[in-house]
Design brief:
Length: 162
């Protein structure tokens, strides 16, 4: 069964076959873990955000005993259709395929975790007349918060190399 929205705190489920049609947003809230994506090994620690379209491509998922994560996944096409035509996601998708891990500040991580929790709390309200519009607006807020963090990372990198 294809689910539009999924939320979990289980790292070992992050590459489940049920996520094939989604884009997953995973935040490490404590500890350490690792995974292989596009034949490259990634190590994550607290406040690292992982954004992966089609997370079934993640392999060799490994968690230290102290690892804690929260993740939210939504239908990839649904997310793409929310974005304006002049969006960062095209370049963002290219860079995420090269490096899906985005280190966040404490403030950025807290904001994105709040986004996840709003989505988690509202995704069960399928009976609402404007359910997909509501979820779309919350997903869009989350994506803009992520784009903000990514652009700040890119800007800081450019300034550091200038």
């Amino acid at each position: 069964m294809k689910l539009d929205f999924q939320y979990s705190t289980n790292f070992s489920e992050a590459n489940s076959e049920t996520l094939r049609h989604t884009c997953m947003h995973l935040l490490c809230t404590a500890g350490e873990g690792s995974f292989v994506f596009n034949e490259k090994c990634y190590h994550i620690v607290k406040n690292d955000l992982v954004v992966i379209p089609n997370p079934t491509k993640m392999k060799n998922i490994a968690a230290h005993d102290d690892l804690q994560v929260e993740w939210f996944a939504a239908d990839y096409k649904f997310l793409q259709n929310l974005l304006p035509s002049n969006n960062y996601s095209i370049g963002g998708s290219i860079s995420l395929n090269q490096d899906p891990v985005v280190p966040l500040t404490e403030e950025q991580a807290a904001r994105i975790l709040e986004d996840f929790h709003r989505l988690r709390d509202r995704m069960v309200e399928r009976q609402l007349m404007f359910y997909h519009e509501l979820m779309g607006s919350l997903c869009l807020t989350m994506m803009y918060d992520i784009f903000e963090a990514m652009l700040r990372r890119t800007t800081a990198t450019v300034l550091a190399t200038s």
